[in-house]
Amino acid sequence: MVWHLANVTQVISKMSCFKSCSEGKCATYMRIGCAVYLQKLSLLLSLSRAFLLAIDVGAKQGMSYLNDRLHFNANNDVHNFHMWVLPLFYRKTANIILTMISKALEVIEPL
Fold first, then answer.
1. Taking all residues of the chain, what is their mean pLDDT, rounded to a whole number?
2. How far apart are the C-alpha atoms of 16 and 90, rounded to whole Å?
3. pTM metric for this prediction
4. Same-domain status, 51 and 9
5. Residues in Cβ contact with 22 at an 8 Å cutoff, skipping those fewer than 6 apart
6. Do 17 and 54 fall within a single domain?
7. Are the beta carbons of 57 and 92 closer than 8 angstroms?
8. Which domain holds residue 28?
9. How many other C-beta atoms lie within 10 A of the C-beta of residue 63?
10. Does residue 30 sit in the same domain as residue 78?
11. Is the pLDDT assigned to residue 10 strictly greater than 80?
């Protein structure tokens, strides 16, 4: 699926680096994109005093998920970031959800 998206991106953008993109190369591009996104989010959060975390837990096609959005003010602008959707392989207890969110936030801002 991701490989298909890379090839569609190549057709639309006409960038040769996406031509005949292998699944491994595509996964590397995705990892780099996620790292850049999380770094930008970390830098913006460092300019903010507080943030609001909006949490949504649900299920689609029999798979439970945790969807997080982050709202904060930095440089006199209000930011609304979709952080991630994490699969919930276990029961949806408050303790499990809090643990997942804590571990994920430590990626952005280590304690």
1. 77
2. 41
3. 0.58
4. no
5. 3
6. no
7. yes
8. 1-38
9. 10
10. no
11. no
